[in-house]
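Lab notes, practical 5.
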Amino acid sequence: MFQAQDNKEIKRLHLRIKFLSFCFFLGFLVLSAKILYLANLSLGSVISITESDIHNMKRPNIYDRNGHLVASNIAISSVAIRPNLLRNKEDIVDRLLSAVPSFQREDLEYKIFNDKKFVWLKRGITPSEQDRIHNLGIPGIQFIDETKRFYSSANTLSSVIGYVNIDNIGQAGVEKFIDQQLETGNSGDVYLSADLEVSHAMRDELLKSMNEYSSIAAAGVLMDINNGEIIA
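Output from the prediction step:
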């Protein structure tokens, strides 16, 4: 009698253990799914910033150690066209050439005689060119406001600053570092340790030495020995 009762208690205990094990397993699955969801959500946000939005972000200004402006943005207008919406394409090519003589016929024909949904005609047009193209009244023409990088002292600090491509994406130097900062949401202005006036003076002296000794190249570095900052 006691043995039968003990067997029932053991069975009940086994059932409880199985039930608790199932609950723990189910909870683990729910927690794992939640972690994966949050990870994918976070990754998606990073991809959105780095691949889709970074070239639309306003690039910060670059200053030297004394607050002199080294790099900034200027507003420009560009023109694009939607070839898939066009009719009488040969006539459109002729009209564009008459409005903007700097266009090349072969280039226009290559861009217009296809069925693409979007093609750049020219990046960075003048206000006069924009007015003349607009007055043509061609359907499918689109004007887009963009920004272009302007370097006030490109010859002096070019090796440090680097440069951007036509899409305003940094390719080297500080400009490439700025892209890394933009990916993290940091769009604050950048202040260099370099001194623009000292860099100008060093460049002038190097050019004089090159002319004096008929050398093909020259280089120099000025560093603050107290903290290791590069001045020029």
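Observations recorded by the TA: The longest helix spans residues 2-53. The radius of gyration is 32 Å.
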